[in-house]
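Q: I have 266 residues here and want to know how they pack in 3D. Can you give me a structure?
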Amino acid sequence: MGRMSKTDTVAETEKPETTTAAAAKAAAETAGPAPRYDTMQLWNRLKRTDPKATKPFTRSGGFRGTQIDPTWRFQMMTEVFGPIGKGWGYEQVDWTIAERMVFICARVWYLDPQSGEKCFTGPQWGGTEMVRRRNGIEAPDDECFKMSMTDAVGKCLLQIGLAADVYMGQFDDSKYREESEAFYAAKANPDLQPEAVEAFEAEVKKRLGACVDLDDLEEVWRAGVGTRLREIGTIDRAAQHRITGLFAQKKAEILKREEGEGREAA
């Protein structure tokens, strides 16, 4: 038997694509680009802080800031991801004691709402003094470990946007705080919960379907829809834009039909 040449070897390995592989390749080429992942979705959903969950503080040296209620942080994470231990959680990575302080390193995990993938924040350290001075007397602080963990977890949660507006200095603006108060007041309104907004949108679609002219359209708008849309806009701009778009679409349909009827009459 003769020796196989390099050309023979190449020809042997370069097998034609199977029908299945060719079909998969063609499908991938015609499918187009994958849907764009909204990289700011979580950040935008978590960044606004409820003013009722904050209070100002002053430290030695004149440093002033805004303290955020740790329980509110847990509530927000539960609202977005589900119960702790199921949709999100945190774990201790390391700990140490130095200079009469407890330091704990932790990281937070969560299940991405879009993909279901388990994700992790970067690790963060939190520290608390082990001894507190009260009434001129030094005494051990039995909550120093808990407070260090709370500090570390809060820093981790900031990495995905939770209460980012406080750290970005937006709470220094009184107008912004007023907007946040209105946002959370609306959020607590049963009529502005997702199910209620969805039902309202379905109702608007039904009523618009019965409109035959611009007068009917105006009547629907004046029947409380405009006011309700302003309220919805404080909590869900996307829903507000969708419902407003329904009116614009219906108006365009009516005008187009009336224009066609006018040409036929002429």
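Q: Anything worth noting?
A: The chain has two domains: 43-172, 189-265. Confidence is low (pLDDT under 50) at residues 1-18.
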